């Protein structure tokens, strides 16, 4: 027990030193982004946990602006890719071009070769283009012809999609959605926040200049440090109970949910719940995670990994309703 306490003290001190840049990062983002503090925190969690993010919300909620601003405050490469129905996989990852001078082929790399990728309106392109992202997102590498190229780290895909417009869109297949650590629903700003947005947007100015406040090396160092954050076995059990309850509700005396959940969450949910909780602990300068960290990020990890039945849809239930029921029912350690 003494060794655990001693090592935890060391981790806490290390976290306190290495997480100082988080405050600078938040301050820089808030120079441009009005409100949306929870959204910003969850995007930073994805960045720290090395997990891709799917942002879902109606147009005009600053999804693109947030990602572009994040790229500005990090001294790293950024590419915005507008997905369209006529887009081809080669437009994303690149292709081989015949060189008449040498009589051979040379590689022309696509926009995927950057650190931060904004995949704007990802559901506007067909499945073959969406699936071209799979290797890059999962393996952090791209294959063009017979050659495989490693992507520079950190590598993070932030994709946006509009939930209300279905005409001319291609819903993301389950395998693709599961590659995203977080699916964050972007909501409307509050009354006073929108007042400030109006004032900022209608003020005559050349734009706010944002200088980088952190480097890629700091992000990579954070990835390494987060691995050392302490996870108590009781917190692990809490995560496992939440995930297993989505698969076998009757085992947790949630009989009514068994007819509402067609498929429960995959093991990726368990892994990502712990990783995201560690990232939140890092943001709060802690060397250990708590059940509250799990509850804070739980809906964003689980909402795209729980598949509901037709019966649930007929009753107009959402995955958020199911997740809330799980959090209300599973005992917190």
Could you characterize the architecture of this molecule?
- The protein has 333 residues and is α/β, with parallel strands linked by helices.
- It folds into two domains: 1-31 and 228-333, Magnesium chelatase subunit I, C-Terminal domain (Helicase, Ruva Protein, domain 3, Orthogonal Bundle); 49-190, P-loop containing nucleotide triphosphate hydrolases (Rossmann fold, 3-Layer(aba) Sandwich).
- The chain has 14 helices and 13 strands.
- The protein has helices spanning 2-18, 21-30, 37-48, 63-73, 89-93, 127-139, 174-177, 191-202, 216-226, 233-247, 267-283, 291-302, 310-314, 319-329; strands at residues 53-56, 74-75, 78-82, 94-99, 104-109, 116-120, 141-144, 147-150, 156-161, 182-185, 214-215, 261-263, 307-308.
- The chain has a five-stranded parallel sheet with strand order 3-6-9-1-10.
- β4 (94-99) and β5 (104-109) form a beta hairpin.
- α3 packs across α11 (267-283) and α10 (233-247) packs across α11 (267-283).
């Amino acid at each position: 027990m003494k060794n655990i306490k001693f090592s935890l003290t060391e981790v806490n001190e290390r976290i306190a030193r290495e997480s100082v840049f988080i405050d600078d990062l938040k301050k820089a983002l808030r120079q441009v982004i009005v409100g949306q503090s929870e959204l910003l925190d969850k995007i930073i969690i994805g960045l720290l946990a090395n997990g891709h993010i799917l942002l879902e919300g109606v147009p005009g909620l600053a999804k693109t602006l947030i990602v572009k601003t994040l790229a500005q405050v990090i001294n790293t490469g950024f590419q915005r890719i507008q997905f369209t129905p006529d887009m081809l996989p080669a437009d994303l990852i690149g292709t081989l071009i015949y060189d008449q001078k040498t009589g051979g082929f040379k590689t022309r790399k696509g926009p995927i070769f950057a650190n931060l990728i904004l995949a704007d309106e990802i559901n506007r392109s067909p499945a073959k283009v969406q699936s071209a992202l799979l290797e890059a997102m999962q393996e952090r590498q791209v294959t063009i012809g017979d050659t495989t190229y490693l992507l520079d780290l950190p590598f993070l895909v932030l994709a946006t999609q509009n939930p209300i417009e279905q005409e001319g869109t291609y819903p993301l297949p389950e395998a693709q959605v599961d590659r995203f650590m977080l699916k964050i629903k972007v909501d409307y700003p509050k009354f006073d926040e929108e007042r400030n947005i109006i004032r900022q947007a209608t003020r005559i100015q050349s734009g706010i200049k944002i200088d980088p406040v952190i480097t890629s090396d700091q992000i990579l160092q954070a990835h390494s440090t987060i691995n050392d954050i302490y996870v108590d076995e009781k917190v692990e059990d809490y995560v496992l109970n939440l995930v297993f309850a989505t698969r076998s509700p009757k085992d947790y005396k949630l009989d009514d949910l068994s007819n509402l959940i067609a498929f429960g969450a995959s093991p990726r949910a368990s892994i990502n719940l712990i990783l995201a909780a560690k990232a939140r602990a890092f943001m709060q300068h802690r060397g250990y995670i708590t059940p509250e960290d799990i509850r804070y990020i739980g809906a964003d990890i689980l909402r795209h990994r729980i598949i509901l039945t037709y019966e649930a849809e007929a009753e107009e239930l959402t995955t958020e309703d199911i997740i809330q029921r799980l959090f209300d029912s599973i005992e917190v350690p």
